[in-house]
């Protein structure tokens, strides 16, 4: 398991957590949202990024926590 | 197969009424088509109106069009190709017929063969057309990428490919850009600018807004069309003041646009409609019946009509108004409105409906998604045979992988499917391992059919791995299967035939292969049928049945041909045995052309290595005999470089021996001896089928260095071997060489007797090469037996004096041009248009300010690329493929 943090543009409803493999959704200032949590593997991470793509969200950052 | 395809996937969507025309983008698409660019890529995130743009463009386009909407299941190449063919057949029923025939046979097929066949069929299409692949981001499969890349690389002139995707595909886009073969429309092109937003709100949305209000909306959504459309929906029916407030609220918010706006829209819809929306959204597509099943009511038809009228992101998937889906963004929002458990419950209800309505495969998808494994397993049992026969191994394997391991391992049928899928997908180690691991579990509880299939599978894999138990396993598979499953019977028979070829008399192997061929023909399995035929013809070459083998080759070339009588790419492999047989009859030029054609056909199919190098070696011999020694060596070098010595040690050994053979022919005894010393062969070895040719080379060397006794001993071994195994096509070589050796040894009578035997055998079958390639001594021996068969020997002896004639390096006669076309350059297109207008080379030179020589050069290249021989043909071809368009405008 690896811990990832993904920042997207727009305030996401925390209800959406289900759709991002259970990542925790926090609304940040400046109209951004953070999705953070443990990701099973790289395939799971790409699944989440695809979801970001499919929702038309703008991807601002992806960071792995060491 | 066709009736099982979902028609909704190949339905060309209707243009959206009321949407503002996007002139600049439509013009760009037009320009790409008319300037002959083969490919248009529309790449942007969801909700930017990609599909709408292309649909509206198509509606105004006077050209045939095909559409394919992709989904994740299309990552199975066989399924992908089946749908692609179905889409293409909406234009021309002939396209893809042969490719579809190739696909029959349970996935046992190299993917490049499919791409090449389809490419040729597209080239033969009756009219130019546009093919749209929508939602291409769903495709992750490497094989499919390669096939699409092949299509683009060779771009057939009739085809204009439009790809709609949310992410750039793994194709070589930079190369296409550099060659100016790509029209690109991306996010920044698609977003609505301020003017378009204004037009949109006045024209389509029926809302009267102030300019600054539109500007605020445009800024907030950044021209994202889905956002603007939702905003228009939210504004519908609002008074000017309320509208102003709404826009202010929206602009001041940071919320994800879809969440914010959808809530506004949903808030204002009838609760019954809300209920319908959230429940039907759990499916990727639905119809009125399913709507009623999921809501437990009977008003779905009315609601669907209301939704369509309100323009609530409902997308019809066919022209009969039967199937629908929601816009992806909308569906995603709706799905968050329900709890996961509720969704699973709804999906389970849908599974039953799908199963009852003949859509079991769709049912499996939801049963697996909902985690209803018993239900999924039941459905799989009823569907697997069909999916398997269509060869959709990727799909089958994915389903089996989603089921709990124990459920699969305790079902012998599933085990068979899983092992076969693994094997075909290139994971043979894993397949063997899987079969071994599950062997014990399934032995008791499997019926003869299932047991037979498993055994056939084991036999096939054993043969592939050169396992000595192949024969035994294949035989018990055949016994268990009886006549119950032709495909697995073919597999078992082919394995048995290969195993018999190694150790048993050749006629036994050939008889088994004939059985495989007949079974495959009756079942309509093209790949296994052709494979068996190829094996039979190669067997007959060795058995010395030259005439029968030639007959079969010609028959196969006719049987496996397209509607114009052109052999299919796979069938072109038959040119290889045919070429070898022509070589045996000393028809050297013809043999050379056939072999080159056969080798060329085998390359894109990835099969050149499997055939063991016979084609390349015979071709090199032909060049050598024709006096082109350099080409012979170049060919050999190239073929060797192509052979992986580690993976195919036997083929490698044969190349090394052949090299020594050529050195010996050149008189380089030292070179030949070097090979002999490095090899581990001795005259006393027991002979095997595949190594026979090596020993023949050894015998030649022993003879040339004067070790006559050893040579004779070895040749006698070979003779006994060939007699025992029915290898008369080889025996004739052994006889001729033996005869030469015996004569040198002074055993004249025996020499003449063996030569006579060779002649008696060779005459009716027309074998000439065994006599012509063995040196000048043969001539004297033939003269001694001439009285016996003058009608055969007189012309044969004539060839000896002709040998010098063959040594002239001649120009290679031109081969029929392959239909695979290379792209014409811009300049070649210009020249072609002028040729079509009837201008002479001089006139073209003047008009284009280039030299006469350059024009001639271009014309020659154009003819080559178009596969034509005259200016009139070139013009006709150009018209057929729409290459003259620009000139016409």
TrEMBL record, chain A:
Q: What is this protein called?
A: Uncharacterized protein
| Organism in which the protein naturally occurs | Desulfosporosinus hippei DSM 8344
Recite the lineage of the species: Bacteria, Bacillati, Bacillota, Clostridia, Eubacteriales
From TrEMBL, chain B:
Which source organism does the UniProt entry give? Desulfosporosinus hippei DSM 8344
Which superkingdom, per the lineage?
A: Bacteria
Xref: InterPro entries: AAA_16, P-loop_NTPase, Sig_transdc_resp-reg_C-effctor, TPR-like_helical_dom_sf, TPR_MalT, Tscrpt_reg_LuxR_C, WH-like_DNA-bd_sf, WHD_MalT
| Segments forming a coiled coil | none
Is-annotated flag, keyword Ribonucleoprotein?
no
Q: Which CDD domains match?
A: LuxR_C_like (cd06170)
Task: List this protein's GO terms for biological process.
Answer: regulation of DNA-templated transcription
Instruction: List keywords of the entry alphabetically.
Output: DNA-binding, Transcription, Transcription regulation
Q: Which protein is depicted?
A: LuxR family transcriptional regulator, maltose regulon positive regulatory protein
Example GO molecular function term?
A: DNA binding
What residue stretches are annotated with the HTH luxR-type domain? 817-882
